[in-house]
Amino acid sequence: METLATETEVTSMPRIGDEAPKFKAVTTQGDINFPDDYKGEWVILFSHPADFTPVCTSEFITFANLESKFNKANCKLVGLSIDGLYSHIAWLRTIKDKIEFNGIKNIEVKFPLIEDISMEIAKKYGMLQPGESKTQAVRAVFFIDPKGTVRAIIYYPLSLGRNFDEIYRALIAMQTADAFNVATPADWNPGDDVIVSPAGSCGVAEERMTNTDELDCKDWFFCTKKLDKDEVLKKILKS
Ligand code: BEZ
């Protein structure tokens, strides 16, 4: 019989700034204790609707191909779907043996893929969105920082494959904001100007408009400064 999530079970979900809900899980890489096993590093916990489906397959090939790039940014990947361990193993073997996507083939998924047949973890993380599906997780992406705090969440519907360049960009932007105490404007990428924190007093507002050496102020509340790409990458990426 199909197991359906009730409305109350799926309404709770972590929010930005919350501690990432804890769980123990069985994965394709052995048991994990989440997020404790990842303290000191960033982790992206993401869900997909089902094994052996085409959009998910394209996503796993893409993410596995980028895994070392995320690891270099001190970030681990953890996947999840409401499938069992043997389905996961069979699917990942098929991906490696048979599927080519965007010129990527023979790809081995080395990051853990959680089995969540009970839906316990999917419910804890609000990955079940009953209007979309009562039995399959939507494409959720949780960015969790080295202290175990949820820092960003992105949701996509079942039919929409994720943009992994954006996921990487968001990770690097948050790490840059933390490391340099700045914010990042729309479409920011390393090397682009960053936003300095807003003036908190009339005096600072005045100073910002008169001292134009370091800052480029469009107005007192909107000031940017240069931040060298190499400086960003040196600070953030493992050598
Ligand atoms: C897919 O991954 O292809 C997929 C999964 C569930 C619904 C629609 C598409």
UniProtKB/TrEMBL annotation:
Localization (cell): Cytoplasm
Thioredoxin domain residues: 14-176
The reaction(s) this protein catalyses: a hydroperoxide + [thioredoxin]-dithiol = an alcohol + [thioredoxin]-disulfide + H2O
Record bears the keyword Protease: no
Record-annotated disulphide pairs: 217-223
Residues that hold substrate according to the record: 139
Alphabetical keyword list: Antioxidant, Cytoplasm, Disulfide bond, Oxidoreductase, Peroxidase, Redox-active center
UniProt KW Secreted keyword: no
PROSITE patterns, sorted: THIOREDOXIN_2
UniProt-annotated catalytic positions: 56 (cysteine sulfenic acid (-soh) intermediate)
Top-rank EC class of the record's enzyme: oxidoreductase
The protein's Enzyme Commission number: 1.11.1.24
Subunit structure: Homodecamer. Pentamer of dimers that assemble into a ring structure.
Family: Belongs to the peroxiredoxin family. AhpC/Prx1 subfamily. Belongs to the peroxiredoxin family. Prx6 subfamily.
Biological role stated in the UniProt entry: Thiol-specific peroxidase that catalyzes the reduction of hydrogen peroxide and organic hydroperoxides to water and alcohols, respectively. Plays a role in cell protection against oxidative stress by detoxifying peroxides.
Misc note: The active site is a conserved redox-active cysteine residue, the peroxidatic cysteine (C(P)), which makes the nucleophilic attack on the peroxide substrate. The peroxide oxidizes the C(P)-SH to cysteine sulfenic acid (C(P)-SOH), which then reacts with another cysteine residue, the resolving cysteine (C(R)), to form a disulfide bridge. The disulfide is subsequently reduced by an appropriate electron donor to complete the catalytic cycle.
Protein name: Peroxiredoxin
Source organism: Aureibaculum flavum
Upper lineage: Bacteria, Pseudomonadati, Bacteroidota, Flavobacteriia, Flavobacteriales
